[in-house]
Amino acid sequence: MINLIKKKVFQQIKKAEIKQHELNYLFWECTTRCNLNCLHCGSDCSKNSAFNDMPLNDFLKALDTIKNPSSNFTVVLTGGEPLLRKDIEQCGRAIRQRGMKWSMVSNGHFYTAEKHNTLLNAGMGALTISLDGLEKSHNWLRNNDASFSKVEKAIALAASSKRLNFDVVTCVNKINLSELQSVYDFLLERGVKAWRLFTIIPIGRASENPNLLLADNEFKQLMDFIALKRKGEKMEINFSCEGYVGDYELKVRDSYFFCRAGINIGSILIDGSIMACPNIDRSFSQGNIYQDNFFEIWQTKYHAFRDRSWTKKGECASCADYKDCQGNGFHNWHGTLENVLVCHNKKIQHANNG
Amino acid sequence: MKRNWIRKVMGGLSLTSAMFIFQACYGTPQDFGYDILVEGKVTAKTTGLAIPGIKVVVGDNIQFTLTNEEGYFSFYTISDTQIPIRFQDIDRELNGSFGDKEIIVSAVEDRVYLNVDLQEE
After folding, report:
1. Among residues A9, A117, A251, which one has the least CA distance to residue B76?
2. Closest chain B C-alpha to A319 CA, distance in angstroms
3. Staple A334 to which of A50, A281, A313, B75, CB 3.0 to 4.6 Å?
4. B20 and B77 both lie in a single domain
5. Chain A residues touching B61 at Cβ < 8 A
6. Least confident of A90-99, A156-165, A203-212, B99-108
């Protein structure tokens, strides 16, 4: 009964949030250069990116269009690998000078003690580092034999900070699925307080590698693992907001599924494109900071994100859970947009039906 | 302000205050921590001249910065009722020799400016 009430109230809140569409979270794809060549990369980044890093001042001009930013407004520096930018601290300080917070997603390779110090000095408040298994499986996915040892040090540094809101993310795949308990123990030993797990969707390089994608029963195994671990209190564990998971909602994350792309989450991509999350099909670009006023676009466009009725097609058309799911995570719509790329709930149902 | 009030009430009613604490699938957690911007200038007590290269260390010795050519320093650190900050001459003869100093900062506001003078040795 309580869960039913919670769900009904949640649905009302969700409607209000969509109507209000307050910008809380802005990704800045500040570089597409990357030191790694990961097997699962959705953005096809490389050491020799086709794009130059976006000049800080170009981004700041767009940022300055935001009128009355919310109190929890955060700029999330992403890439590529943001630490390849030599002016990363300068970028962070410029954001803080505007009364905004900033954070960063990193592969941890260059997150040394010196860098940890200078980033804290520059006011970084949150950090996410990727760890994709124990040494062998992590290095396999990261396509780099030195990656694990570097990430291990980075995690220990970040976890030692009282200031940082820090979490580790893991891309779960066929190779590391059986290691999750060991990864859990590894993180716990290093003082990590939050761990987020997600799966890989078949876009970018991942679409060509079957080892990266979980079968239906493997996905359910992942859900069961997260649900079980959440019963303990040693570490905060969540399934990411990548998709609707039916009966596992609230068992694998703190809140009901709500893809906030374009509702509370925006992004400015390397070429100036104005988007929601960076991993969304770039045909959904809403404008470009080099031609448009960023905040005007945020306030007046993003229709496809705020009214998702267009997703009621393909296998979603006749789905009984559509009201709760609304087409799954937005990044699951790619290419022809005729059908959702992955239905997490269906994977669970298939697994349940044997 | 009004919108945040509505959010808090709705969150309480739904027993899911966590719903407003979100992160994008591939993003970072939101930052709800509090910090303080500490900045200032370090000068020599007798001459009043700026001292470059002074190590400014926060509490636990992990976080630090160095003064620049103008003796200026600036960093963000976690907010607390008492933040010990030590000033150490680590290059000795290079920019003159100065004694160490410790100051306790109280994070009353989110920003503090310190004028620090060090005694020549």
Report:
1. A117
2. 23
3. A281
4. no
5. none
6. A203-212
